[in-house]
Design a protein that fits this description.
The structure holds two protein chains of two kinds.
Chain A lengths: L1 H8 L4 H23 L9 H10 L4 H36 L11 H19 L7 H22 L5 H25 L4 H9 L7 H20 L1 H8 L2 H6 L4 H23 L5 H13 L3 H25 L8 H21 L1
Chain B lengths: L1 H27 L5 E4 L5 E4 L6 E3 L2 H9 L6 E3 L24 H6 L4 E5 H4 L3 H6 L4 E4 L4 H14 L3 H23 L8 E4 L6 E4 L4 H8 L3 E2 L7 E4 L1 H7 L3 E6 L6 H10 L8 H4 L3 E5 L1 H4 L4 H14 L1
Helix pairs in contact in B: 6-7, 7-13
Classes of the chains: A mainly alpha, B alpha/beta.
Chain lengths: 344, 306
């Protein structure tokens, strides 16, 4: 069946393309990460950075800045960017909607509500939960995931509109609850707003070790659904004729994607725009075949996010600009430029 | 032999008791290392007298200046604007997210953080093994405690108590004057703003506490914390005095602000507007948990009764 699908879609030579893309992608991520290590409020000689990376150095401050601040931040940026973009691409596939992004199916609103409740609770419980905010966010995300799943079942699960509308409805509901929390909270207000803006500044190795596994396994599972997504991109009926249970596929991608997003945004807050625009850019660059497009999105997303983070922390240093703003300011013109070039 | 054993037992026992008491006696004398429980309930040990202090909130910066510790500050936030000398101190950026790289680079031995803004960052500061003390003064009394805590941590607890005694005295003078005024004679106060949407401080805010201490009756005292209220609420409460806290204000804006408030529809019957009892004040005297709150208190008393 695989073979016939490949022929129908006209996607040939995908293995070669994939290997080439994986090679170029991993090399560029490595290169860009090394370059990004050089940027920060404190200027550190590139030579010093290399010696710190290779064998550590006697200068404790520089060591700390590179290993405990910049490196984990870049690692978190790569994972977050890759996860958001892959899930964005997959969601655009199952919803057959170019405006879909990883947050459209409600999981982000749930995470945000969970985090805001966690922050609001500090007022009552003291600082017991200060380190457990990600847990609150994750529980919130799982709750919203369950609600979206249930409400899409009530409507018509075989149709992409049902899932989409359920996601949008739950997003609105949770956003409204967040607005109420924001309105009635006082000293926690700032903490909540900062959480909602999302940032990578609180990255550390522990967080990275927690999210790496779900992000990688989840993304691999999405990659393995590429053929089904390709079939779905031909159309709902065409996919059914090819023997694909589109309803089940949709739910599967929705669940995997949401769990990836939940684990990532629980630590980073809501970083916007990456998951919307990077899959489109990847599609423009490598074509619509999900087998190549999804890994390409992952690489591009990782690179894009760490570059944006460099801008966020250097443009107005020592002030850090919210990274969500940078992703949109840099990403929107880039996207329009690529679209223009494609159409010429 | 028995006596020998007994005496050894007693000796060891005494030694244990004495050695367990030792650290406390050191701490009381203000010697280092000094362990302190901060406002998040965390025990923080300060190994020696801090020489490089970073303040991550305007209130902490002001308290450091009040205690004469400005020479030891190596970093403050972009929002720390009082007193004037803060201009010359290196900035670490925004209140949140904190720029950890800059903080580490400045190599501080004490960080004074503020829980209201930095919940997300505090665990990270501790992870990086920085000595972070978190303050969270919510009342006038808390503010005085913060002053004492900072003084204590920096090895000048005498100076801290002196400052607090002085402030307490000033507060007590106002309190004793106010206690002679019958409740019915106390003016009704409304704290308004310059924007169309009205946010006003209710119970649990520093502002409400100062109004009450200064002998005023806050019309929003039935609400809790900062609340958005409707113009109707104000019209019905008929306040005698309107206080308008503002940040920076340009010249000639004062009359404009007063006009705007006076001309709001439905408010013409409010006594404060009929008698033009509208006062514009510097918001920093009422929002920041610093000794200047007492200046704010005296200012309010002056507005209400002089």
């Amino acid at each position: 069946m695989n073979k016939s699908l490949t022929e129908i879609a006209g996607y040939t030579n995908w293995r070669k393309k994939l290997i080439l893309m994986l090679l170029v992608g991993s090399l560029s991520i490595l290169g860009v990460s090394l370059i990004c290590l050089n940027f920060g409020v404190v200027s550190i000689n590139p030579k010093d950075i290399i010696s710190i990376l290779l064998n550590g150095t006697q200068d404790k401050t520089k060591n700390l800045i590179i290993w405990q601040l910049r490196a984990p931040r870049i690692a978190l940026g790569v994972i977050t960017g890759a996860a958001l973009s892959t899930v964005g691409g997959a969601f655009q596939g199952i919803l057959r909607n170019p405006l879909a992004d990883p947050y459209i199916l409600g999981v982000s609103a749930g995470a945000a509500l969970g985090a805001c409740i966690g922050i609001a609770l500090q007022h009552v419980t003291g600082y017991l939960f200060a380190s457990y905010l990600p847990l609150f966010a994750f529980i919130g995300a799982m709750l919203s995931l369950y609600l979206v799943y249930k409400s899409s079942e009530i409507t018509y699960s075989a149709n992409s509109t049902g899932l989409l509308l359920a996601g949008v409805a739950i997003t609105f509901l949770f956003s409204a609850l967040i607005t109420i929390l924001l309105a009635i909270s006082r000293k926690e207000l700032q903490s909540m707003v900062f959480w909602l803006m999302g940032d990578l500044s609180a990255a550390n190795w522990k967080k990275i070790s927690i999210i790496t596994l779900p992000a990688i396994i989840g993304c691999l599972l999405l990659f393995f659904s590429s053929l089904d997504l390709n079939a779905l991109s031909l159309g709902e009926e065409e996919a059914l004729h090819l023997g694909i249970n589109t309803g089940k596929l949709r739910i599967r991608i929705f669940l995997i994607g949401s769990i990836i997003i939940a684990s990532v945004v629980s630590f980073t807050g809501l970083i916007g725009f990456v998951g919307l625009v990077i899959p489109h850019i990847a599609r423009l660059l490598v074509g619509p075949d999900h087998r190549i497009m999804l890994p390409a999105s992952a690489f591009l997303g990782g690179i894009f996010l760490i570059l944006c983070d460099v801008l966020a922390r250097t443009l107005m240093a020592p002030t850090e600009i919210p990274i969500g703003a940078i992703t949109a300011i840099v990403g929107a013109p880039l996207f329009i430029y690529l679209l223009r070039r494609k159409n010429k | 032999m028995k006596i020998f054993k007994k005496s050894i037992l007693i000796f060891t026992f005494l030694f244990l008791i004495l050695s367990s008491l030792l650290p406390f006696s050191f701490a009381e004398a203000g010697n280092y290392p000094l362990t302190i429980i901060d406002d998040t309930g965390t025990a923080v040990t300060i190994p020696q007298e801090p020489q490089r202090i970073i303040s991550t909130a305007p209130s902490n910066t002001e308290i450091l200046f009040d205690l004469g510790l400005q020479e030891k500050i190596v970093g403050i936030t972009n929002y720390c604007n009082f007193p004037e000398e803060t201009k010359n101190i290196e900035k670490i950026g925004e209140i949140s997210p904190l720029n950890f790289e800059k903080i580490i680079y400045l190599n501080p031995d004490l960080i004074l953080a503020y829980a209201g803004f930095q919940l997300k960052e505090i665990p990270r500061l501790r992870e990086l093994e920085l000595n972070a003390i978190v303050l969270e003064p919510l009342t006038l009394e808390d503010t005085f405690k913060s002053v004492e805590m900072i003084a204590n941590v920096c090895g000048i607890s005498d100076k801290g108590s002196l400052l607090v005694d002085n402030l307490t005295q000033r507060v007590n003078i106002i309190k004793s004057k106010v206690s002679k005024i019958p409740i019915s004679a106390r003016p009704k106060i409304f704290v308004g703003g310059t924007s169309e949407t009205i946010f006003t401080p209710g119970a649990g805010t520093l502002f409400n506490e100062l109004i009450t201490l200064a002998g005023g009756q806050n019309i929003a005292a039935v609400l809790s914390f900062w609340k958005k209220i409707s113009p109707e609420f104000v019209a019905q409460a008929e306040p005698d005095i309107i206080i308008v806290p503002v940040g920076a204000m340009n010249q000639g804006e004062e009359s404009k602000i007063k006009n705007n408030i006076s001309q709001r529809s439905g408010w013409s019957n409010i006594p404060a507007i009929k008698n033009q009892k509208i006062f514009i004040v510097n918001e920093d005297l009422f929002y920041r948990a610093v000794p200047r709150l007492v200046d704010g208190l005296e200012l309010l008393y002056g507005i209400f009764y002089e």
